[in-house]
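Supplementary Methods. Inverse-folding protocol.

Structures were first reduced to a discrete structure-token string of length 256. This string, shown here, constituted the complete conditioning input.
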């Protein structure tokens, strides 16, 4: 529902949405294939099919408001999560996964201005780059939330914008890029348990701490100096220390 009165056209919002979705779900699918599917739909409905040119479809697709696609996403996400079987949860608890990536974008002045290319790129040779950090459901695999930023914004800064999507009692998994004292302390205060891979700059020594087993012990992290990207108000809420469980696991995958 676009919420406005639209004049009747071949590529109405419902037809455009399903044509666009079929194109997204078919890697490498061209606009002409999407138009061919629309033609087939009209023929099955005993209606006069549109012409085979792709101009009208591409123009209609470019007019789709992002907020409406986000509304569809929220509806699908909520439905998937609501009907997820309880046996898929780990010991009855909900698992979440955070991850980040970067994507190149069409080389337009608007994109170059909003999402600058890498600083080391020669002028006129690079493409705009957008950084994405997303929150996924470990139970269903559904994309829950995503935030966008420039290549010059750290993933951990964008990650903080996703904290509102986490609830007490959940378990969050992430790679070493999110493993910091501030992230662990702040999420613990929300009642969220975390499982992060240790950062490569942090040394692990299983000879110290309280041993729990082979390559398994309790350690104490001391509060670091206030990072430049953290406000003094937020820093003041961090505890002076954290007691964490550190384990070492070796995963052997044939051929890797």
């Amino acid at each position: 529902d676009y919420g406005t009165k639209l004049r009747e056209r071949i590529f109405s919002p419902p037809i455009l949405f399903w044509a666009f979705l079929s194109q997204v779900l078919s890697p490498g699918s061209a606009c002409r294939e999407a138009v061919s599917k629309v033609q087939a739909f009209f023929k099955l409905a005993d209606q006069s099919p549109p012409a085979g040119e792709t101009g009208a479809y591409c123009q209609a697709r470019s007019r789709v408001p992002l907020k409406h696609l986000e509304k569809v996403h929220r509806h699908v996400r909520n439905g998937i999560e609501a009907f997820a079987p309880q046996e898929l949860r780990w010991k009855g608890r909900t698992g979440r996964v955070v991850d980040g990536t970067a994507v190149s974008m069409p080389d337009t002045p608007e994109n170059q201005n909003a999402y600058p290319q890498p600083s080391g790129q020669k002028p006129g040779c690079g493409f705009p780059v957008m950084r994405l950090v997303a929150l996924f459901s470990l139970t269903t695999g559904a994309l829950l939330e995503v935030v966008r930023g420039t290549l010059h914004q750290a993933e951990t800064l964008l990650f903080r914008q996703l904290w509102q999507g986490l609830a007490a009692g959940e378990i969050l998994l992430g790679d070493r890029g999110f493993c910091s004292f501030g992230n662990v302390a702040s999420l613990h205060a929300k009642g969220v348990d975390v499982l992060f891979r240790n950062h490569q700059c942090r040394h692990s020594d299983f000879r110290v701490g309280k041993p729990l087993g082979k390559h398994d012990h309790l350690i104490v992290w001391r509060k670091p100096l206030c990072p430049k990207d953290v406000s003094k108000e937020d820093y003041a809420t961090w505890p002076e220390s954290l007691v964490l469980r550190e384990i070492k696991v070796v995963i052997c995958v044939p051929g890797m």
